[in-house]
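cache lookup: miss for this entity combination. No prior model stored, computing from scratch. Input as submitted by user K.M.:
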Amino acid sequence: MSDTTLERTGAAPMRRGFPLSAYLICAGGIVWREALRFIHQRERFVSALVRPLLWLFIFAAGFRQVLGVSIIAPYQTYILYEVYIAPGLVGMILLFNGMQSSLSMVYDRETGTMKTLLVSPLPRWFLLVAKLFAGVAVGVVQVYVFFAIAWFWEVQPDWLGYLTALPAIVLAGLMLGALGMLLSSLVQQLENFAGVMNFVIFPMYFASSALYPLWRVQESSPLLYRICQFNPFTHAVELIRFALYQQFNGDAFLIVLGCTVLFLGGAIVAYDPARGLISRKRQ
Amino acid sequence: MQDGTLSHAEAPGIPALAVERVSHSYGQRKALDDVSFSVPQGSFTALLGPNGAGKSTLFSLVTRLFNVRHGAIHILGFDLNGEPGEALRRLGVVFQARTLDLDLSISQNLIYHAALHGLPASAARTRIGEILATSELRTRLKEKARNLSGGQLRSIEIVRAFMHRPRLILLDEPTVGLDIRSRAAILAEVRRLVKEEGVSVLWATHLIDEIDPADRVIVLHQGTVRAEGPVPEVVAAERAKSIGDAFTRLTGLSVRAEGLEEVRP
């Protein structure tokens, strides 16, 4: 009896649960949208590239004479300063990209686009992880375009290094993206985001091994050295630096992995309606 | 159709939406106070209330943007806290704020939404053709959403809400900010889809002229339900002449063409 009633009203019975294909289609859709948005925002791509290139072309050229870099792992010979900061600049691209993605999450929340994402029936942690991977995919493209340009600037690691660096770049991107996501849940309004930039991006970038080797830092300030060591960004940069020369930095890997799990866990809790912060905010 | 595939919860007797003793506060301020009502399957139910009555809070709870802390909400029998995935897949929503991505094309927006529900792009395209079969928007799918008028954006958001064949559609003041012609068109479009697809609707509004005598109505005021039932019954219970009159008696608010307003002393 119930069958005929349902048929008359046009209802299709649904099975419980979601097949794996639904998860894949959903994640694919989220990455696809991020890619489309990225293509539409060409200025974002250009500025994402110009920033590290300025550092490479101008800052590094100026510092080349001032800052001698002795032979430290993973390098086996004396290297140009440009070569030294290249992994740091990759980290910078990922850092800005991670913050940019989270900025867009705050924007999405203000415009309501976030609501349509969160109303998806798939688990919320899955939606956030998919969103995170979408942001990282965009970051990886930026990094490799940067590598291609830097190659002409004498930053020429082994070809195989570009391949071995990929997992490190992805993991570092995930960590920084997850951090951005966590911050986006804490920032109530878009206007407050400039503060996050000043208080997160710049300290993280400068108090790290991105621009100068840590032994140099230790010589001038033991305190700053400690701070640099506690900065997860240092380890993200070191992970990429070693991987680019086909070496595995185990400590850096564990720290970056641990921080990724921590930040992502925090973001999932923050976006969970049961415990989350969004329910306490009046939109 | 086999019996085995039919879930118990979708039997016709079970309401499309059941809100049971739901309360919600923002700090000290109570936005919803012990709210209970239901939307029977296949019905068009209007949620009538002035601004600030708690309609948007209620929508945030039903769409699981906020967690239900006090009380329970069931969609087609599925508890929103217990089985959120099963509940949400049966739900389509049109939010009050515009939520289309203006930089993407109309079809990209719709395909993205279908993907969020696990529908592949091919199925999404078929579905778009189905819903927009008679609409002139069908020829503009490749255009950026930015090029559309307010009324057209809303129409696309309604298409989006129907994409994954939900059983319950929630619309939060969908005609706000539209001119009279667009308002009528949106209302007609939703009523047509409801008839064709047999879905249930909860239509939040503060505009009394959007309510049809054949609808059901829930009157929400200051976070509490003041009346619930078919329009003629609510009118009769208040010994009123019209639903507008009944509303005034229930809430002490006057009804004007542009919406509901407090009676000025």
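stored under new cache key. Residues 14-90+172-256 of chain B form a domain with the Rossmann fold fold (CATH 3.40.50.300).
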